[in-house]
Design brief:
Elements: H1 3-48, H2 70-73, H3 100-111, H4 118-124, H5 131-146, E1 151-152, E2 158-159
Antiparallel strand pairs: 1-2
Length: 162
């Protein structure tokens, strides 16, 4: 086998491996989203139940929703085929199919005059600008980029798709 053929073979194998890893990462991020929603639902259910003894407030591991009513009004809690929570833009009839927090992120990005940084988007939505919250929001914004709802500039800012 010639050297160019060997390089092509390795290139194809590396591209297949990269695609497989991207798929695994997307599935893991979707699992995290579902678990965060489940955590929030359990906390809300426990908070609504009368208790005989003073209950300790469970430690908030991650702020899931932008508003407390998300769990009740979120129509996207029904998973899409393949276990996805967020659909691709070309599959959707509009932004109403996205969970409420993703809709809020899209609105924040669209309202900006220029591409916005993740920290600016968090501040604009009244979220904490602590690193943990910013990174959670960045993961959601990156998922919107992957699914075609947003684009990411070379400066790592987020903007509406062109």
């Amino acid at each position: 086998m010639s050297l160019p053929d060997q390089i092509t073979t390795r290139l194809v194998a590396a591209a297949e491996r990269a695609e497989h890893l991207r798929t695994q990462l997307a599935e893991a991020e979707d699992d995290l989203d579902r678990l965060r929603v489940a955590e929030q639902v359990v906390k809300e259910i426990l908070a609504e139940q009368p208790s005989r003894e003073p209950a300790e407030e469970p430690a908030l591991v991650y702020q899931v929703a932008l508003s407390a009513s998300r769990v009740h009004t979120d129509r996207a809690a029904q998973l899409l085929p393949g276990g996805r929570l967020i659909c691709f833009r070309h599959e959707a009839a509009g932004t109403h199919v996205l969970p409420a927090d993703y809709q809020a992120l899209l609105s924040a990005v669209r309202s900006g005059q220029a591409p916005l940084s993740c920290k600016t988007i968090c501040a604009q939505l009244g979220l904490s600008t602590e690193p943990g919250q910013v990174e959670g929001t960045r993961a959601k914004l990156n998922r919107l980029v992957e699914r075609g709802w947003l684009r990411k500039t070379p400066a790592r800012a987020f903007a509406p798709p062109t």
